[in-house]
TrEMBL record:
The chain crosses the membrane at residues 20-39, 74-95, 107-127, 157-183, 203-226, 266-288. The keyword Nucleus does not apply. It is a multi-pass membrane protein. It is found in: Cell membrane. Residues 70-284 form the ABC transmembrane type-1 domain. Keywords: Cell membrane, Membrane, Transmembrane, Transmembrane helix, Transport. GO terms for biological process: transmembrane transport. This is Sugar ABC transporter permease. It comes from the Bacteria. GO terms for cellular component: plasma membrane. It comes from Microbacterium caowuchunii. Belongs to the binding-protein-dependent transport system permease family. PROSITE patterns: ABC_TM1 (PS50928). The keyword Plastid does not apply.
Length: 296
């Protein structure tokens, strides 16, 4: 059998070139820059001044605030991701049950997603305001003094308060992804399960959940990555305070680079965060891929 003639090599390079260039500009170059900054004495205005090896790594790892921010970011990210996933799945099931009002509800679910994070942070900061905010007003009806309701001023409640805003913003994304997966189920399989007596929790546990498990795991992966990157809400609502109670790693990178002008320190913290994110997300990505393959 005669093989079809292949196109000229220049045409292949022409089509592949933009993708390779985009990868180099958006991926490789920033990584190389961060690596060089991490191992050199680098300021915001004068990077790569002097080679210092692992000295900056040792200083960062010896900094209690930096190490604490990594742990705080991990706990925060896992917490908001699990909460968003649970609420998103419940919302998707409720949305599927109310199919007649589905289009309206889906439109309403998009509102938090299309709202800029800066606006979300401002909105929730006003909600938590003890001087007439929504939370203080509602609790005031039950006789709770407004002066005692200031979660963003509490080292204990500031981070959970930010987490509530984060969950509110991104839960609709999970709900819409899961809802789409539910709609893609085989209706004949569902009907057969109902005829066999599977309803409610049993139907979800044995039929629906295995069918959408891959999408749920993928949605959790996406949500976790977004949670690790949280910065806008922290910046708008607490500025990392009170104290260091809401200083996540992303906010610490901002402080090191744009407040202290220490580009080397910011680069090291960025690399440590990248390692943490990789270690946490790779198992989840593998699980999502395996579940999706089993479903197919």
């Amino acid at each position: 059998m005669r093989r079809a003639p292949r196109g000229p090599a220049w045409a292949h390079r022409l089509f592949v070139g933009p993708s390779v260039l985009t990868l180099l500009v958006l991926g490789v170059y920033p990584l190389v820059f961060i690596l060089f900054a991490a191992f050199t004495e680098s300021s915001l205005g004068k990077p790569f001044q002097e080679w210092v090896g692992t000295e900056t790594f040792q200083k960062v790892l010896a900094d209690a605030d930096a190490v604490s921010s990594l742990g705080r970011t991990l706990v925060y990210s896992l917490g908001v991701s699990v909460a968003s996933l649970a609420l998103g799945v419940v919302a998707a099931l409720a949305l599927h049950g109310a199919v007649r009002s589905g289009s309206l509800v889906r439109t309403l679910l998009l509102l938090p997603l299309i709202t800029p994070p800066v606006i979300v942070g401002t909105l929730w900061k006003l909600i938590y305001n003890p001087g007439g905010g929504l939370l203080a007003t509602v609790l005031g009806f039950f006789g709770v003094p407004a002066q005692t309701i200031a979660p963003l001023s509490s080292t204990t409640w500031a981070l959970p308060a930010v987490a509530v805003a984060d969950v509110w913003e991104w839960t609709p994304l999970i709900a819409l992804l899961v809802f789409t997966a539910i709609l893609s189920q085989d209706p004949q399989t569902l009907e057969a399960a109902r005829l066999d007596g599977a309803h409610g929790w049993r139907l979800f546990r044995h039929i629906t959940l295995p069918a959408i498990a891959g999408v749920v795991a993928a949605a959790f992966f996406i949500r976790l990555v977004l949670a690790f990157k949280v910065f806008d809400l922290i910046f708008m609502m607490t500025s990392g305070g009170p104290g260091q109670s809401t200083t996540t790693t992303s906010y610490l990178i901002y402080q090191a680079a744009l407040r202290e002008f220490d580009l080397g320190k910011a680069a090291v913290i960025t690399l440590l965060l990248a390692v943490l994110v990789t270690l946490v997300t790779i198992p989840i990505a593998l699980i999502a891929r395996r579940l999706q393959a089993n479903h197919e």
